[in-house]
Amino acid sequence: MQINVTVRHCEIDGTLDERARAVATRVGGIALRPMDCTVLFDVDGPSSVAELRLRDARGETIGRGEGENHRTALDRAEERMRRQLQAAASRARSGRHTEAAEG
Fold first, then answer.
1. Does the N-terminal or the C-terminal CB of the chain have fewer CB atoms within 10 Å?
2. Dist. CA 32–CA 40, nearest whole Å
3. Which regions of the chain does DSSP assign to beta strands (E)?
4. Which domains are assigned to the chain?
5. What is the mean pLDDT of residues 8-17?
6. DSSP at 41
7. How crowded is residue 8: how many other Cβ atoms within 10 Å of its Cβ?
8. Are residues 41 and 70 in contact, defined by beta-carbon separation less than 8 angstroms?
């Protein structure tokens, strides 16, 4: 899976870049055949913003987080992304289960 880290209107240090790549790898492990993940860091007024965009076999999933610093924002974005990917996986499993029971 290809991982891109993009920074707009701010600067991040090397440790946050490494953490962003680790987070992208973790959420890629939950996804169905992940293709690429983009981690975007930005500033929106007084708050720091992190956004994860993951493309997989189901399409694109976006998790956005805000916080007082970029690390907190990244953690919140990861949490939102995880919830979405787990819900999608759960829906896919339950859909297959009902089709098999009916057929």
1. C
2. 22
3. 2-7, 36-44, 47-56, 59-67
4. 2-102 (3.30.160.100)
5. 95
6. E
7. 9
8. yes
